[in-house]
Fold this sequence. Notes:
Elements: H1 3-24, E1 29-31, H2 34-42, E2 49-52, E3 66-67, H3 76-82, E4 86-89, H4 95-103, E5 107-110, H5 117-130, H6 134-154, E6 162-166, H7 180-187, E7 191-192, H8 204-210, E8 214-217, H9 224-234, H10 241-244, E9 248-250, H11 253-257, H12 261-275, H13 285-288
Parallel strand pairs: 1-2, 1-4, 2-3, 4-5, 6-7, 6-8, 8-9
Amino acid sequence: MNKTRFFYSIILLTLIHSVCTAQTIPDRVISLSPIITETIYLVGAEHKLIANTNYCNVPKAAINKEKIGSVTHMNVEKIISLKPDLVIASALSREKQLMILENQSINILRAQNPRTFDQMCDMTVLIGEKLGRKETAGNIVDKAKKQADYILSLTQGLEKPSVFMQIGLKPLHSANKDMFINEYIRYAGGINIAENESSGIYSREKVLTQNPQIILIATMGSSKKAGLIERERWMTFKTMAAVKHNRVYVLDPEMICSPTPTTFVKGLHDLLPIIHPGLEQTISPERGKQ
């Protein structure tokens, strides 16, 4: 092969690679869970999102997208009719329905529900790469990790109060050390009384026995009013340390229970002054806030 032919071969291979790469980035995407939808917006790929679930309401613009059913039961026929390039499924998506979509030559990305802060970061990077927003996703994750580590550093050497985080009503639920809920408490400088439990199911009697210094209420799938009612219920236990010192708080469940790396840091910003009053003033706008 002479030099001219070799040169043109290189150009051809480059063009083929560029075309193939472009074809792998989808333009019509459907999300099957709120956290996936929020991540798509976070990485700046919302213009590719053509539909999502009835529960996708963060950010508010997501409400206006076409709806394809619930998190656990999608309308397969409608999804097929929308002709997506990619459907991003969660661990709660029904495998039989996903297989039907795959049989219709629809690409499926199975994203796992993040259980830890690191997994939130990994999912953000994965979705960012898949949607052609790799650099943006990487920057978001790097910034969030630096800010979370900085907040963690503020509580080193401080006394760590005992904390109970309630995330469910009936039955009463909390989270053990394998969940990001526990990481909220750890990064903000507290000790989760449920961290060593094998299950998230808890009893009110057990909470009373362990007598936490702080109670946090972020009940998934319920309104803020439900959280306020639950707070009043806890406040009837006058001998409990958290009640004696008026340290029973209602948190935003949308932020606490379905976080991205960005909202995780925002959640830490809310939790830090609750667990360690006064420390909020030590967080700089650049390092501690989004």
